[in-house]
């Protein structure tokens, strides 16, 4: 029951911080357009190269601050004594995230280092299922087509890439966003990671968010409507609404994950503070 309560609370709370949604809705397209502009900067000389590197660092810092600050805000909303109007919480959440950019970037670097091994396994999408099916007894091969093995292999790659690796590292991102490097060796930091990783609601919610935020978004963007009389205007209209829907789905999935992470972090911190020895002289 506690598992369902935690997941239900994350879903019901995700739409409450309207200011945070406004920041996310506006900031992400701005960062995307800024990134697209950054790709057009030439690197023909030292000055342009310096500008290119400097803008890349600024964009990365803004992107990390935006999303780590979002996690901090949900954590603050679930803390014992949030601000009465919520405005200082939002401001303080992004300030703490900006102060701990190096620790956040270190977590992201670990994430990006673990992803390539799963990407390299994609070359076995054809040979490995074929080999596994070939070594099975004949009576099994008659009832299990090759497509089932290929689908299973693809599903395992997706689970490892978008659920297992992020699921193990996102609780560390919570610690880094709130306390930086000094939060990792503490009992509270370990409690946040351990409680999240050991929770079925965490993995269930993360799995649902990954399916919606990755598979559904990918399917919507790659979908080609069957126009009877296709025109350029209809193609633009189709692309426009598909991009908007995909963006809203991806953002909602991410916000649900942030809400769940914030609840785990706040509850773990409350448990650590409750179990900590009190000062008799206080």
SSE string: HHHHHHHHHHH
Rounded Rg:
22 Å
DSSP helix count?
11
Note poorly predicted spans: 274-282
Average pLDDT works out at 85
Oligomer: single chain
Structural class computed from helices and strand pairing: mainly alpha
The count of β-strands is 0
* Count of separate structural domains: 1
Any idea what the shape is?
Answer: globular
End-to-end separation: 37 Å
Helix content: over 70%
Q: Bin the strand percentage.
A: under 5%
The description of the largest β-sheet is:
none
Task: Describe the model.
This protein is mostly helical. It has one domain (2-275). 80% of the residues lie in helices and 0% in strands. It is built from eleven helices and no strands. Helix 3 crosses helix 4 and helix 4 (87-99) crosses helix 8 (146-179). It is globular and about 60 Å long. 24% of the residues are buried.
